[in-house]
Specification:
It is a single chain. The chain is mainly α. The chain contains 13 helices and two strands, in the order E-E-H-H-H-H-H-H-H-H-H-H-H-H-H. It has one domain: ABC transporter involved in vitamin B12 uptake, BtuC. The protein has a two-stranded antiparallel ribbon. The protein is globular, with a radius of gyration of 20 Å.
Length: about 325
């Protein structure tokens, strides 16, 4: 398909890369990627301070902590990477993801309000609050982009991070006033250390979210071409954007409630995949999920071993690496323009 240029919701002209479908998923490179991620998963199962071989209850601890942690890594990596990919398609901007649109900060604000109303809320209630506020915050961000015409698409993530900073400040203020600082700090430091059996099972809902995204992948891809093009091709643009926003909010809300804040993962992986494979969501989704799993598992392995026997929050490593890659992508975009 020839290269096409459309007007994004930011008001700036965005040049869309080649849109093409690669119907074959199980290609040799993809099989290699799955194999590498599987190896990382096995390494994760046997990495940790607790000696599962030398202790009597070693294998019990293996299934109580190691297996849930590895499963949570895989599901979270798929969720955040997939959310970033869908967000980039809807906004027609490669620089956005839940971290740079304020979605994750809105999820944190939802958790704060849940803790404010219910002193000891169950995980299901925390997750519901995070999902609702994620949806509200994402829709506010989209509404803002529709109303304000920006000359450069590079300004969009900056605006999103500014809005996120405001929401984060509000969450911190509420936490200080109502003495909820500890709960907020736990959320800001995204870590898989507390994950164990009975505390991660809601992450399996991410599989359902991925299935819905795969079903509506073609429509979401058309929505990524802009409202005029999507409407001319028979797609209800507003409806599909609302659906995509809802799916993103569910995934981000679940991760925020169970794990915490995981920055930049949804920015790095989709950009790398789109750079080599174009913008077809259906063919890119398996790649994005697998590479997202591998990236977060690798970061978690570093977090567990870099100062062993202590553990660095995985969000610290993701934030450091992601910020560097984000700056590199910004510079490349500016140079191209």
């Amino acid at each position: 398909m020839p290269k096409c240029t459309t007007r994004s919701i930011t008001g700036a002209e965005v040049s869309q890369p080649h849109l093409f479908s690669q119907h074959k998923i199980w290609t040799k490179p993809f099989i290699v990627a799955v194999f590498v991620v599987s190896v990382l998963g096995i390494v994760s199962l046997f990495t940790g301070v607790y000696d599962i071989h030398g202790q009597e209850d070693g294998w019990n601890m293996f299934f109580i902590t190691r297996v849930p942690r590895t499963a949570a890594l895989m599901l979270t990596g798929a969720a955040m990477s997939m959310s970033g990919l869908v967000t980039q398609l809807i906004t027609q901007n490669r620089m956005v993801e839940p971290t740079t649109t304020g979605t994750i900060e809105w999820a944190g604000l939802g958790l704060v309000f849940v803790y404010l109303i219910f002193p000891a809320p169950p995980l299901m209630l925390r997750m519901t609050g995070a999902i609702l506020f994620s949806f509200i915050g994402t829709m506010i961000f989209f509404f803002f982009l529709r109303k304000v015409k920006l000359r450069s698409s590079l300004i969009v993530p900056v605006i999103g991070m500014m809005l996120g900073a405001v929401i984060s400040a509000i969450s911190t203020f509420i936490g200080l006033v109502f003495q909820m600082t500890q709960s907020i700090e736990t959320w800001f430091v995204g870590s898989f250390a507390p994950v164990q059996i009975g505390r991660y099972e809601y992450l399996w809902l991410i599989v359902i979210v991925n299935i819905f995204i795969f079903i509506y992948a073609d429509r979401l891809t058309l929505a990524g071409l802009g409202e005029d093009v999507a409407t001319s091709l028979g797609v209800n643009y507003n409806k599909i954007v609302l659906l995509g926003t809802g799916l993103i909010s569910v995934a981000v809300g679940i991760v925020a409630a169970v794990i915490g804040n995981l920055p930049f993962l949804g920015l790095i992986v989709p950009n790398i995949v789109s750079m080599y494979r174009g913008d077809d969501l259906k063919s890119n989704l398996p790649w994005v999920c697998v590479l997202g799993m591998g990236a977060i598992t690798l970061c978690d392995l570093l977090s567990r071993t870099i100062i062993m026997p202590f553990e660095v929050p995985v969000s610290l490593i993701l934030g450091t690496v992601g910020a560097v890659i984000f700056i590199v992508i910004l510079l490349k975009q500016r140079k191209r323009r």
